[in-house]
Amino acid sequence: MRRIADYALETPELNTSPLPEYDYDQLDYGMTIGIDRTPGGRLWACWVAGGDSPEAFFVLATSDDNGETWSKPRLVIDTHSDKLPMDRSTLVGNLWTDPLGRLWLIFDQSIGMFDGRAGVWATICENPDAETPEWSEPRRIWHGVTLNKPTVLSNGEWMLPISLDQRNGFGPFKDCFRELDPFRGANVFVSSDKGETWERRGCVRFPNPDWHEHMIVEREDGSLWMLARTAKGIMQSESTDLGATWSEPTVPSGIAQPNARFHVRRLASGRLLLIKHGDKIDSHQGRVQLSAWLSEDDGRSWDGGLVIDERRGISYPDGFQAPDGTIYISYDRNRAKDGEILLARFTEQDILAGKLTSEDSKLKMLISRPLAGKKAEATTSAHSLSDEEKKLGFAYLFDGKSFDGWRHEGNWKIEDGAFYRYRNGGSLYYETATVPDDFELRFDWKVSKGCNSGVYYRPAQVEYQVLDNVHSPYGENPRQAAASLFFCMAPSKDATRPFGEWNTARIVCKGSVIQHWLNGEKVLDFDYNDPRWAKYVELLRIRGGDLSARDGQLWLQDHGQDVWFRNLRWRTVPPQEKVAASPDFEPMPVPPAALAQEQDRVRRMLEQARQK
Q: How high is the mean pLDDT of the chain?
C-alpha cells in the first residue's frame, strides 16, 4: 500500500482551460474551501466537487463585481486517472493573498480519503487580476493537509497550519506510515523568507481529533491562540514562544460549536472575528444558524451575533476582510443535494447590530450551484459498481427496480431507484441469503423529519441506527443516534446530513471487530471482546442482542416514519484481509438526562426479564 500511496507524491497538473468538461452542468456536488481578494479587487473562490470522498477535486471561479456575479470554472485540480489503482483525491486547502499581493492556492493530494501521509501542495499566481492568470508549478510543502489560511505574525513570519491526522490512515492504508506518528497533530510551520521555505516549529495533539482544521491568531500580548475542531467541538491551545511549544488543550470558555469548521481572524480594527454555528455564542443546534461575532478582548468575551444564514445544512465558513473593512464569508449549503457555494458580505457594524445596517451588505449571495443533479440521480439509480467494488467482490442486493429477493407487507414501494417505506405495515426483509459472518455492507439512507429506522445485520437486536438526530428524541442519546450500534455503542461524532438528504453508510464486521461508517467517515470502531467495552456489550445483551451470533437476516426497519434506502450492496470479507479496531476510538458521551432515561429503561427491561 505504501507503493500505491506514493502516487500522491506525483506533481499535480493544473487545468487552466477546464471548460466544457467541468462546466456547472457537469458538476453535482459543492463543498466550500476558501475565498480571497486580490490587490485589484477580484474575488477568487474555491470549492470541492465530486464529493467529500476519494472522488473529490478542486474548482475555482472569479468575480469582478464584488461577488454579485461569478465566472464559469477557471481552474480545476483533478488528478484522478484510470491508470491509477485507486482514486487520488484533492479534498482540503484554501486560497490566500499574501502581503506581496500574490494569490496562493494551497491544496492536498492523497490516495483515497487519507492514505496516512497525504501532502500539502501550493501553487502561486503572480498576476491574479489578469485576464489570463498564470500559476506556478505546484510544490509540495510537507505531509498532511491544510484547510485554513496562514497567519502573518507581528515579527514578519508567516505561520501555516498543517494537520497530519492523528488517525494514521484510513482503510487499507492504516499503519502504512508509522514513522510519521510522532508528528501527528495540529502542526504549525513558519516561513521567514516570504514562502520560499517552510520549517516545522511545533505541534498540538488534541483529544478526539477530527481533521483539526486549526486556525491561529496572535494576541495583543504576543502569545498565539490556536483553535481546533474536534469530535466534541472547539478546543484551544496557547503558545508564548511563537509556536514552539503549546499548552495542554482545553475547551474555550463560553464558546459552543458542533463538530464543524469555524473561522477566526484578526480584523483591521484590532477586534477578533469568529464565525460559528448558533445564534448564541454559548450554544448551538448543529449545522444551522451560521453567525458572526466580535471580541474586543482577544476572545475572552464576544459581542454581536449576526446570523448570516439561518437554514440547516450550512457549513464550512472561510473569509477575509477587504481594505475598506467589509467582511466576506463563503460557506456551503446541502453539499450533496443543492451543492450551493454562498457568500455573505457585511461589516463590523452589522455584527454589533445583529442585522444588516450597511448599504452594501448582502447575504446568501450565490457563488456556484452544480447543475448535474438529475444526471447524478440517474447514475446512482443505475446501480453500477465502482472498479474498486468490483475488485473487492461486491454484489448488489437490490436492482433499483424490483423487490426480487425481498419480502414486505405492501407498505414499501420503489421510488427513484430506492426502497421507500411510505405507510405502516412492517419491515423489509432480504431473503435470498443470510448475512455472511465476515462482511461489508454499503448503502445510502434518507429519513423524513423525526424518523427512526435501522439496518439489522446480526440475529436479534444488532442494529445500525438510522435517525433524524435533530428532531427525533432518540437523538438526545448518542447510543441511540444515527450510525450507533443501537443501545450499545455511540459513534465518535455526529456526521449526519439533515433530514431529506441522502447519507452514505458502511458496516464492516470481521471476527469480533465492528465498524460503522457515515458519509465517508468511520464513526464507530471497536472489538466487542475487548474488556474496555464490556459494559456496553452488556447493555446490548440486556436488550436482547448477542454480538457473537451469526447467520442472521438482513432487514430494514419500519418504525413508523417514512424512510428510504438505496444502493444496497455487500461482499464477504476474506480471511486474509485484516480488520483491526482503532485504539483511538472514543464514543460520544451520553448527556446526564439521556443517561438517566437509559438507566430507567434498563431497569424496566431487567424487571420484565425477571417476571418471565
A: 94
Torsion over CA: 539, 542, 544, 548 (sign):
positive
Cβ atoms of 52 and 335 within 8 Å: the answer is: yes
Q: Give the SS3 label for residue 446.
A: strand
Report residue 267 as a C-alpha cell. Answer: 480584523
Grid-cell match 455511540, residue found: 490
**Which residue matches cell numbers 459581542?**
303
91, 113 contact by CB (below 8 A):
yes
Rounded Cα gap, residues 445 and 453, in angstroms = 10
Q: Specify whether the CB–CB gap between 502 and 339 falls below 8 A.
A: no
Give the C-alpha distances (Å, rounded to integers) separating 515 from 234, 434, 461: 26, 19, 16
Q: What is the pLDDT of residue 341?
A: 97
Q: Where are the alpha helices (DSSP H) in 178-258?
A: none
Residue range 190-201, pLDDT digits in tens: 999 999 999 999
Answer whether 490's CB lies under 8 Å from 584's CB. Answer: no
Please enumerate, as own/partner, the contacts of 431-437 that have beta carbons within 8 Å and a separation of 24 or more.
431/405, 431/406, 431/407, 431/553, 432/397, 432/405, 434/551, 434/552, 434/553, 434/554, 435/550, 435/551, 435/552, 435/553, 435/554, 435/570, 436/570, 436/572, 436/573, 437/509, 437/550, 437/551
pLDDT confidence bin for 380, thresholds 50/70/90: very low
- pTM for the whole structure: 0.66
CA atoms within 13 A on the CB side of 602: 15
C-alpha cell at 231: 469530535
